[in-house]
Model the fold of this input.
Amino acid sequence: MSIHSITEVDVAGKCLLIRADLNAPMKDGVVTDATRITRFAKGLKPLLAKGARAVVLSHFGRPKGKYVAEMSLAPIAPVLGEALGTTVTFVNDCVGQEAQSAAAQLADGQVMLCENLRFHPEEEANDADFAAQLARLGQIYVNDAFSCAHRAHASTAAIAALMPAYSGPLMDEEIDALTRALEKPAHPAVALIGGAKVSSKIAVLKNLVQKVDSIIIGGGMANTFLFADGLAIGKSLCEADQVETVREIQALAKAADCELILPIDVVYAFKFADNARSFICDADQCPDDGIILDAGPKSVVRFRSVLAGAHTILWNGPLGAFEMRPFEQATKQVALEAAEMTRADLAVSVAGGGDTVAALNMAGVAEDFTYVSSAGGAFLEWLEGKTLPGLAALDRDQAA
Ligand code: AMP
Done:
């Protein structure tokens, strides 16, 4: 992959057309968590200081190709301005005369934010004419939205063929972290894969067995593995129709010399509820009406010792029903171990996916990881080994 970063370009006096992801949580027109905006601003600031002019494009929510007042990006402009320490002009459309003249009037160091790309159906259709209209707003295209890179939309794919195309600073961070963790991992490399279902992570598991030395499997999906091995799992969440898939993954892992590590004991309850009375048993002893909701303490010791020998840790999906007490324990303990390994500079740790980020925040260790990706879909597709259209569009090897 040969992607060039905008940070290596002389941007003084240049108008950058930057695709960002400013889809921040909002309630009643007020941004409730500005993390995405402040992270983007941090990368943009040095470019502005070098004299760049910035036209910022983003989507917000899923308006399905028409104007929806609640999905306007207007409330984001002052928040972005505050994070940048400058005024951000808001323009009511992302294409057309008004946007073009506003872009033409930008002085060095100035920023404008355009209205939601997805108010136009052509955006999600990856329409070439729409991309050409967007391209009129700047001289250099910059994609700084890794979280949207798994979508072939006009602002992430078609546009890159129309003007010089570069990655942005946030995109660089994400590519760097994922490359270190997955493409060129320091061995032993360990993946932690949890979450509810095997069916949603088949492609991830099939790809990871080729790349890492061990995979710790937890969460609801571990139940399906235990079930496939003939263990009693009571009334636990299980996808009986995925037994063949599990066998296939086990065979691939064996062929690739990748160890699959399952819970050896479990925490179960008789109802799926916060503060439900919980019990611990060996993984083959779950009673008929028990519901497995977490890995048990012996498993945690095992998981921690595997992590303690790792140089790369890759994580997606909680190891138990971590939103409910006391079923957060395995996720928490393992998160603490991974954080400790990272702090001691013994391992590179990269985690991603909405629930995983929430779980790391619950454990209070998100800051200790080498990199925590907030990109859900794009992160998973990278783990699956897929080519992301937004990256392919920037890749000069592929364009050549
Ligand atoms: P996913 O979206 O596939 O990453 O799944 C995350 C969800 O899996 C979380 O909401 C967890 O509560 C849930 N989960 C984890 N372990 C279990 C389990 N043993 N039984 C049921 N749900 C679980």
